[in-house]
């Protein structure tokens, strides 16, 4: 009897010691942490418990975690945010983006590029957002936020996007403020063939809902003035997407025909207009991006404009777009800032894009490959680069959702 009690006490003490010593569920050890919000840029360990960031510090003992992953030689960042995507995938006959085949299901294209949060850029309007939420947002492991289109039926097609009678600022604002303020983070104006009417309707809704507006400006011949857009129609905090597009017949460019950034563009950025890359299938050209970056005009946010026509062309994925800016001379810190903390601030979600203690554990582990790479724009022109980012491991809410080379797994041994 006495011996049995001793054995029980011994086992209890061992289990208790183990449970106390293993403070963390997961430990990422030895990676180069880049966390722009918290000014972290050094070799640190990142510990996760209960799906939250528990510690970010040097030399956390390995025996304090149930699972340890050696990420030495990799960059460890907050989960990447892609602020411009189209993920309202569906089968409405004749539809383009809204419940259409051009949009993509998010989980298939996010985690493999280190993305844990996406912002759908106006695929749906107030009339069909609830369908989008039910069939995509609620079904996805990816965190899906959205900009609500000022057109009630969203991006059903180019003709529907011209319908001024379907641009209802009051109902758009009601959908955001009354029903889904945690999901709907802004408003989208896009593809309008006329004057500033659609933009002004979107800004009116933005004022009512207290959210920013993203403008895809163009498709008007002759092109409307972007200087007037920046200073007469948009507010500080509103977004101009497709920054480096080169379609001068229908859209005024930021770089003039002599390769010079127009002075008012820099003044607009100083004023607080947010410039978004929004690469897309037709909206990123080296002829704009190369001289712009050389002259110090760099978009605030790097995003993909993900859809089937962009991912299978020059865009590919967010890591590829980030790598294009490495080829233009930006640092790893520069591109991480523009895919984490900058977009989080733009959409007023300070809980995202950082490794704050207590934040939901969205983490990207990126490999910076060295070699010879080619990066293609939408005109099938290529710029060479020697550095390329690749998503090695992605963690969403504390769970490993992408592991390219088995960093988190056990080695197979043949018996």
Structure description:
With 415 residues, the chain is of the alpha/beta class. It folds into two domains: 24-77 and 361-403, Urease, subunit C, domain 1 (Roll); 79-346, TIM Barrel. The protein is 25% helix and 27% strand. The chain is built from eleven helices and 15 strands. It has helices spanning 2-21, 129-135, 169-179, 197-209, 226-233, 263-271, 286-294, 308-311, 318-327, 332-337, 341-346, and strands at residues 24-35, 40-49, 52-57, 65-70, 75-78, 80-85, 115-125, 143-149, 184-190, 213-216, 239-240, 274-275, 363-376, 382-396, 399-403. Strands 1, 2, 3, 4, 5, 13, 14 and 15 form an eight-stranded mixed β-sheet that branches. Strands 6-7-8-9-10-11-12 form a seven-stranded parallel β-sheet. Strand 10, helix 5 (226-233) and strand 11 (239-240) form a beta-alpha-beta unit. Helix 3 (169-179) runs parallel beside helix 4. The longest helix is centred in the N-terminal third of the chain and has 20 residues, at 2-21. The chain starts with a helix and ends in a 12-residue tail after the last strand.
What is the gist of this entry?
This protein has helices at about 1-20, 130-135, 170-180, 195-210, 225-235, 265-270, 285-295, 310, 320-325, 330-335, 340-345, and strands spanning about 25-35, 40-50, 50-55, 65-70, 75-80, 80-85, 115-125, 145-150, 185-190, 215, 240, 275, 365-375, 380-395, 400-405.
């Amino acid at each position: 009897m006495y011996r049995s009690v001793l054995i029980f006490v011994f086992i209890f003490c061992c289990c208790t010691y183990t449970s106390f010593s293993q403070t963390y569920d997961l430990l990422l050890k030895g990676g180069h942490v880049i966390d722009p919000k918290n000014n972290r840029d050094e070799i640190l360990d990142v510990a996760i418990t209960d799906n939250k960031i528990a510690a970010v510090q040097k030399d956390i003992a390995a025996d304090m975690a149930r699972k340890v992953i050696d990420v030495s030689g990799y960059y460890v960042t907050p989960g990447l945010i892609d602020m411009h995507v189209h993920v309202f995938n569906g089968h409405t006959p004749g539809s383009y983006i809204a419940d259409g085949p051009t949009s993509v299901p998010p989980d298939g294209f996010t985690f493999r590029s280190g993305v844990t949060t996406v912002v759908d850029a106006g695929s749906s309007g107030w009339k069909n957002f609830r369908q989008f939420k039910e069939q995509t947002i609620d079904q996805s492991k990816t965190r899906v936020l959205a900009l609500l289109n000022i057109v009630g039926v969203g991006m059903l097609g180019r003709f529907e996007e011209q319908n001024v009678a379907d641009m209802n600022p009051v109902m758009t604002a009601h959908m955001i403020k009354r029903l889904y303020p945690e999901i709907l983070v802004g408003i989208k104006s896009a593809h309008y063939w006329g004057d500033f009417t659609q933009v002004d309707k979107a800004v009116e809704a933005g004022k009512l809902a207290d959210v920013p507006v993203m403008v895809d400006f163009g498709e008007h011949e002759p092109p409307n003035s972007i200087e007037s857009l920046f200073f007469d129609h948009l507010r500080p905090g509103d977004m101009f997407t497709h920054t480096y597009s080169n379609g001068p017949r229908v859209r005024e460019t930021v770089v003039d025909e002599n390769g010079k950034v127009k002075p008012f563009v820099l003044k607009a950025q100083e004023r607080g207009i947010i410039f978004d890359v929004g690469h897309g299938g037709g909206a990123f050209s080296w002829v704009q991006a190369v001289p712009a970056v050389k002259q110090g005009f760099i978009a605030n946010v790097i995003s993909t404009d993900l859809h089937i026509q962009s991912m299978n062309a020059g865009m590919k994925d967010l890591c590829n777009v980030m790598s294009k800016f490495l080829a233009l001379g930006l640092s790893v810190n520069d591109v991480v800032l523009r895919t984490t903390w900058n977009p989080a601030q733009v959409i007023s979600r300070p809980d995202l894009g950082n490794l704050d203690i207590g934040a939901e554990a969205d983490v990207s582990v990126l490999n910076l490959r060295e070699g010879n790479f080619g990066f293609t724009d939408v005109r099938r022109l290529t710029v060479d680069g020697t550095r390329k980012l690749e998503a090695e491991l992605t963690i969403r809410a504390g769970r490993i959702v992408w592991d390219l080379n088995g960093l988190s797994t056990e080695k197979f041994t043949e018996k």
